[in-house]
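Tokens for chain A. Residues wanted.
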């Protein structure tokens, strides 16, 4: 991956963008796309847009969601400990014994999640996974008054983990889900910006509030009103020892982006992506979405009488954990596949299922 792109990715993955407080990541994204686009814009809830070749046809929306899962301050005890609630699909089994950062008006405040020392636990009993409401943060405050000076109810919290290289092109970070999606959407602009004869209008979008119900996607699918939407998000990599491939499919890190089939995934666009991938020698994998994609595509395709959409995934291990793992080559291929699709469409082309 070329250096400016990698630096952009790191900045996104090290930013804090818990659902409903996505502004830090949105600012990083807008700074990167501004010189690549003809114009940028934001809307009332902080969805961000970058336009290339406006007036071109068809209008293609390439999109990801900027928000990451996290936590939110719920209660501060008399002793100054902080209880919190989850934002999005968090796993309580991972919460104890971690460093976390609370985002406050005065900047980040470090805390650690307390746990009972093994010495004080009942012997001979299997330890139970904690309930989220039983977990607490220790910020080193001496009492409630001191804690309240720093932290307010509703402040968002993330794991302290950031971007690190695991080995070669395999990297780990919290919230790859889904800052990689907005990275890919931005890279499409970089890949297409010097194309002399760009046919379609490209609208790269970084949505908000996906993790709690695809809300930004519903807003932007309606307002952008594209002819087709390519939705970049993470997909489950199943190449780890504890996953049953017969149940969850066979998706490997480093084997290319994943194209979803079923539900919102428009069959004509799916076929076209497969053709483009074959033509351009971009490796792809498939996954099944029989009841929905679980991504922004589920909200976008319902807008305006039906917007042809496809969810394209980046293989991701340990989703919704502080140590998600992805392959940089897959990420480059994801952006490439979307860009090549944009170059392949014909002026005014419409996508419709033949009945
Ligand atoms: Zn997610």
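Reply:
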């Amino acid at each position: 991956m070329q250096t400016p792109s990698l630096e952009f990715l790191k900045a996104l993955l090290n930013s804090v963008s818990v659902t409903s407080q996505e502004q830090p990541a949105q600012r990083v994204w807008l700074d990167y796309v501004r010189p690549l686009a003809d114009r940028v814009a934001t809307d009332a809830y902080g969805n961000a847009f970058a336009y290339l070749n406006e007036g071109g046809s068809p209008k293609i929306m390439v999109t990801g969601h900027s928000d990451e899962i996290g936590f939110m301050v719920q209660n501060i005890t008399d002793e100054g400990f902080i209880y919190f609630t989850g934002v999005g699909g968090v796993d309580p089994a991972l919460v104890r014994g971690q460093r976390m950062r609370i985002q406050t008006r005065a900047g980040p405040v470090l805390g650690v999640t307390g746990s009972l020392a093994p010495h004080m636990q009942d012997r001979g009993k299997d330890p139970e996974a904690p309930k989220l409401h039983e977990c607490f943060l220790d910020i080193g405050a001496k009492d409630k008054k001191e804690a309240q000076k720093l932290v307010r109810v509703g402040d968002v919290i993330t794991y302290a983990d950031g971007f690190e290289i695991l080995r070669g092109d395999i990297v780990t970070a919290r919230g790859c889900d889904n800052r990689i999606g907005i990275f890919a959407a931005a890279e499409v602009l970089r890949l297409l910006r010097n194309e002399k004869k760009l046919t379609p209008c490209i609208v790269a979008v970084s949505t908000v509030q996906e993790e709690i119900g695809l809300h930004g996607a519903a807003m932007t699918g309606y307002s952008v009103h594209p002819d087709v939407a390519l939705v970049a998000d993470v997909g489950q990599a199943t190449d780890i020892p504890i996953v049953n491939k017969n149940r969850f499919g066979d998706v490997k890190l480093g084997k290319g982006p994943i194209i979803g089939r079923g539900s919102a995934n428009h069959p004509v666009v799916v076929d076209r992506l497969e053709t483009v991938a074959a033509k351009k020698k971009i490796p792809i994998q498939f996954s099944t979405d029989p009841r929905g994609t679980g991504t922004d595509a589920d909200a976008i395709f319902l807008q305006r009488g039906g917007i042809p959409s496809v969810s394209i995934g980046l293989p991701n291990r340990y989703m919704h954990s502080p140590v998600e793992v992805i392959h940089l080559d897959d990420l480059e291929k994801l952006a490439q596949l979307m860009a090549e699709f944009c170059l392949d469409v014909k002026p005014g082309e419409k996508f419709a299922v033949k009945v």
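The longest helix spans residues 176-192. The pocket of zinc ion is lined by residues 177, 211, 320 (CB under 6 Å).
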